[in-house]
From TrEMBL:
Family: Belongs to the short-chain fatty acyl-CoA assimilation regulator (ScfR) family.
CDD domains recorded: HTH_XRE (cd00093)
PROSITE patterns noted in UniProt: HTH_CROC1
GO molecular function: DNA binding
Organism: Kutzneria albida DSM 43870
Matching PANTHER family: ANTITOXIN HIGA1, BLL7220 PROTEIN
Name of the featured protein: HTH cro/C1-type domain-containing protein
Domain HTH cro/C1-type: 17-71
């Protein structure tokens, strides 16, 4: 064990310590207290100004519940990412955002390693930057561009998670313990990443979340996240992507016709609230009528749970299916795969899993196309 710790000390990477600390949801002073060091010492380890001794690495490993090898360096191309787009910076603490971002980075690490063995869909994400001060219909035009680029037919979009995965996007659920953070996204040199909230048990709202995050990835790679205008752009993108103007404008009612709205909800696979938002923004419904309708939504408790059928959430299949291919067909040991990813086994299983209540369900047709990469030997 001492020889192993000596080796880790030689290849110790402070960035990996930062990642482990953020995954644990700890501040520097909290970690310092756990290992009997000062916050200044922890900061020095993370910045690379000072290398921890083997005994300190052992203490860090125990405190952060990772193997010592977790702290060894990885290629920098595997960790570079844009700033994650969180919905509301005010309602989410910095430590929660750091923890969520660290989990996203770990998901990228795992995906990159698994791609050594399994061929993933090629990245195909159009770029259509929309400045924060943009006027006009640029977000809607960006959504229309993506639909054309992906050759989507007129009308409702099908399985949305499967669609973005087939275009090279990595979609994973956040850990249950980090469910206070809403859906968020960021881009990497390898592939764009979306993380969904596992506690948002609503098929229709989840689909709008995915379209919203797709809008950020297409329009806002360089934009400061969390601003009201940026979020409005993403909402407008999602509305146009899921409910194209020319396809839906003549179907929307100009009053709160709940029967008609219920029919449209199931046809377009969007929420009542999204339909009301769309009717107002397309000037089919007046502002006063919209406000009155939303008052009804609130008073009846529909903001949290709308009436009608509740389809199962769409499930990611890119990573889960890849791991199934490796463990079932290529006889790869799950623990060995997690170790290759330098990921704690528990977090590895969370990243590559579907939601627990639906893991036994068969994947729908059209799951992301992938194959085992064959050795040339």
């Amino acid at each position: 064990m001492s020889d192993r710790l000596d080796d880790v000390a030689v290849f110790f990477d402070g960035d990996r310590l930062t990642l482990a600390r953020q995954l644990a949801g700890l501040r520097k002073n909290a970690l310092a207290g756990l290992i009997g060091k000062t916050p200044t010492a922890v900061a020095a380890y993370e910045s690379g100004l000072k290398k921890p001794a083997p005994a300190t690495i052992a203490a860090l490993s125990l405190a952060l519940e990772v193997e010592p090898a977790f702290f060894t360096a990885r290629p920098r191309t595997m960790v570079v990412a844009t700033t994650p787009h969180f919905r509301s910076l005010r309602s989410t603490s910095q430590i929660s955002r750091d923890q969520a971002a660290a989990y996203g980075r770990l998901a990228v690490d795992i995906s990159t390693v698994i791609e050594r063995h399994v061929e993933f869909p090629v990245r195909d994400l159009p770029s259509c930057p929309v400045p924060v001060d943009a006027v006009g219909r640029l977000p809607e035009e960006a959504a229309a561009l993506v639909r054309r680029r992906w050759d989507l037919p007129k009308g409702p979009v099908g399985h949305l998670v499967r669609l973005v995965e087939n275009r090279g996007c990595l979609v994973v659920f956040s850990p249950m313990g980090n469910a206070t953070v809403d859906a968020y996204s960021f881009d990497t040199p390898q592939r764009p990443v979306m993380l969904l909230n596992p506690m948002k048990d609503d098929y229709y709202r989840q689909r709008f979340d995915v379209a919203h995050e797709l809008g950020h990835l297409v329009m806002h790679v360089d934009a400061e996240p969390g601003g009201r205008t940026v979020e409005d752009h993403a909402n407008r993108f999602a509305a146009e992507f899921l409910m194209p103007t020319e396809d839906i404008v003549d179907q929307l009612p100009n009053r709160a016709d709940w029967r008609r709205l219920g029919e449209l909800k199931q046809h377009w696979n969007v929420s009542l609230q999204a339909l009301l938002y769309r009717a107002r923004t397309l000037r089919v419904m007046s502002d006063a009528t919209y406000r009155n309708a939303m008052t009804t939504v609130t008073s009846r408790g529909w903001r949290r749970r709308e009436p009608g059928p509740r389809p199962l959430l769409e499930q990611p299949s890119l990573l889960p299916k890849a791991v199934e291919l490796l463990t079932d067909q290529a006889d790869v040991d799950e623990r060995a795969l997690a170790a290759e990813c330098q990921a704690p086994l528990g977090l590895f299983r969370t990243v590559v899993s579907r939601l627990p209540e639906v893991t036994a369900l068969r994947q729908p047709a059209g799951s992301p196309v992938m194959s085992l990469l064959r050795s040339s030997d």
